Amino acid sequence: MTIRVAIVDDQALVRRGLALVLDHQPDIEVVAEAGNGLEAIDATRRDRPDVVLMDIRMPEMDGLTATADLLDHADWPLKVVILTTFDPDEYVYRALRAGASGFILKDIPPEHLAPAIRTVADGGALLDPTITRRLIGRFAQTIAADTASARRLDTLTDRERDVLAELARGASNAEISETLFIGAATVKSHVSNILTKLGLRDRAQAVVFAYESGLVTPGHHDIGH
Question: pLDDT tens digits, residue range 205-215?
């Protein structure tokens, strides 16, 4: 199955560079390019890619607004990945809250780009542990635990809460299985139940929710370790 990708960035050189890397992959096809959020919405609705690589700061409409619009209205399992610099800011955090499946750095090594696309297309999340820890620490700590979100936690079992806390740490299913002494299939089932019960799109939103609900706090878990 071919993964269809759209690339959105206001710098043509960045778009072309990413497209050249991906066009060499037998299972990935770049079906659209756009230079701003408005073009991104038109191109995505027209070409219906599986994954959109989305820049944040663009003219006419920024990537945050475009991401929220696309994910709110897509009638297919669309995934959005944020393109960012080395120092992600509040816009990236807000994009994750809006449903983006993670973020990658614009200077990502070429050999890592295609695997990242495949991870997201397969339902995974792209949350670089070191950067995510800094991002969460910078913005989640300024947000008081939301009462409504905290109440939603009551729908989870104790074990599901444990799994969600591990997700917030950035643990993979295999790492959760080892830490909590449960089978890999059980972990997968718990993750699916968590997303369904909390109305979340994917693991990326689950991480944000874990902090904003007060289940974990910055510093409570060292993400990625």
Answer: 888 888 878 88
